[in-house]
Design a protein that fits this description.
It is a single chain. By secondary structure, the chain is α/β, with parallel strands linked by helices. The chain has helices spanning 29-39, 53-61, 76-84, 104-116, 134-138, 184-191, 197-202, 205-211, 231-240, and strands at 3-9, 23-24, 27-28, 45-50, 66-68, 91-94, 124-131, 144-147, 153-157, 173-183, 216-220. The protein has a seven-stranded mixed sheet, sandwiched between helices. Strands 2-3 form a two-stranded antiparallel sheet. Strands 8-9 form a two-stranded antiparallel sheet. A hairpin with a 2-residue loop joins strand 2 and strand 3.
Length: 243
């Protein structure tokens, strides 16, 4: 089974423009992420997929594999699907470009889903992490996910799900982490389907997969990623590296 990693990398970012090219220990954030993905030894190949010539040059100058995205895309899945269409692979793992401290254990768990799925019943695997803080649960920026007894996703929402009507029942809440592993065909089917109604309403790409009948296996993790969304996050990352 051939497994590759794709790192979608847009230069523009509303909260922190150019964040992927900011210096982190003598390398750009995106280059450090690329090298970290390589160093996991989980993948046959690792690619950065970008719409930016600046990022393209940064990765290629370092000897990395980088693909230029031809079109404007609404989400990471679309950008990856365009790039992977002519690449021979079985599984594609979406690695976040702004998370240079890769959680190798969680990525291994996602890949294991497909190694154990001998009947090919799972189309995607993704991560969830338990949240207990009321503000986190009610925050619409945190996408929540509910699953069945086999950890297959039932639905994703920015609303509080499940609704806790009976206070005597112990309910756990999970946040969806946007790290995916896909079967290549599921990714292409997503790409070739227009945005679906519930996806458009919630602005959650995982819902499109569900609306077109794809099965998503959720894997629980306890690791909260060190992502770089703001200048403050970059300073925290530098401290994490003892810079």
């Amino acid at each position: 089974m051939k497994i590759i990693a794709m790192i979608p990398a847009r230069y523009s970012a509303s909260r922190f423009p150019g964040k992927l090219m900011k210096d982190l220990g003598g390398e750009s954030v995106i280059l450090k992420t690329y090298k970290a993905a390589l160093n996991t030894n989980l993948f046959s190949d690792v690619y950065v997929v970008t719409d930016s010539e600046i990022i393209q040059k940064n990765i290629s100058d370092a000897g990395g594999k980088v693909l230029m995205s031809k079109k404007e895309h609404e989400c990471g899945s679309d950008r990856i699907a365009e790039a992977v269409e002519n690449i021979e692979t079985d599984i594609v793992v979406n690695v976040q470009g702004d998370e240079p401290f890769i959680d190798e254990v969680s990525l291994s768990k996602l890949i294991d889903v497909f190694k154990k799925d001998i009947h090919k019943e799972v189309d995607l695997a993704s991560l969830k992490v338990q949240i207990t803080n009321k503000k986190d649960i009610e925050n619409p920026n945190n996408v929540k996910v509910i699953t069945d007894i086999n950890n297959m996703a039932i639905y994703f929402s920015r609303s509080v799900i499940p609704y806790h009507r009976d206070a005597t029942i112990n309910v756990k809440y999970y946040k969806h982490k946007g790290v995916y592993a896909f079967r290549k065909q599921a990714l292409l089917d997503f790409y070739n389907t227009p945005m679906t109604p519930l996806e458009a309403a919630e602005k959650i790409e995982a819902i499109r997969y569900q609306e077109i009948g794809k099965k998503i296996k959720m894997v629980e993790t306890t690791v909260e990623a060190v992502g770089i969304d703001t200048p403050e996050d970059l300073e925290k990352a530098k401290k994490y590296l003892n810079l």
